Amino acid sequence: METVKIYTGVVKGKPVDQESINNAYLYFEGKGVDITIEIHKTKRSKAQNNFLWGYVWSKIQKYIFEIRKERFPLQEIHDNYKAKGYFGFKKSIDGDDIPKGSSESTTVEFAEAIDRLQKEWAERGLVLPDPQQTEFLEEE
User: Fold this and answer.
1) Rounded to an integer, what distance in angstroms lies between the CA atom of residue 128 and that of residue 40?
2) pTM of the full structure
3) Contacts of 88 (CB under 8 A, 6+ apart)
């Protein structure tokens, strides 16, 4: 094992789980280590990704085909919404805001993207239910 990842909070300038940090140091005894401390961000889940690619993009693809008789690849649909910043933004090397892909988004950014997609497509006549609404997910 080359990496030990520890999630902890900080209270009064000290880690909440100091014991885990001390145990990690023991594991690497006698070795050089890199230590990075960053704000914890929960990335979108595999279930969220499966819902997006296996349901949302597919429904949009089918709906566009029904209305316009044009078929767009799922990746092209995804890239369109990525370019619009639906999954949030990150800074480029030059300091510019550039759109994130869905795999880079946090769970909150991802949920906000799904909400925006639901609203946008509802205005066009396509209902995209929430992932928890399984009674709709089974139709086809």
Assistant:
1) 30
2) 0.67
3) 99, 100, 104, 105, 106, 109, 113
Instruction: Looking at the structure, tell me whether residues 14 and 80 fall in a common domain.
Output: no
Question: Do 77 and 31 sit in the same domain of this protein?
Answer: no
Domain count, the chain: 2
93 or 47: which carries more pLDDT confidence? 93
Burial class (CB in 10 A: 0-12, 13-18, 19+), 87: buried
Structural domain for 5, as ranges: 1-40
- Taking only the tens place, the pLDDT of each residue in 54-81 is 899 999 999 999 999 999 999 999 999 9
Element (H, E) at 15: strand 14-15
Helix (H) / strand (E) element for 122: namely helix 107-123
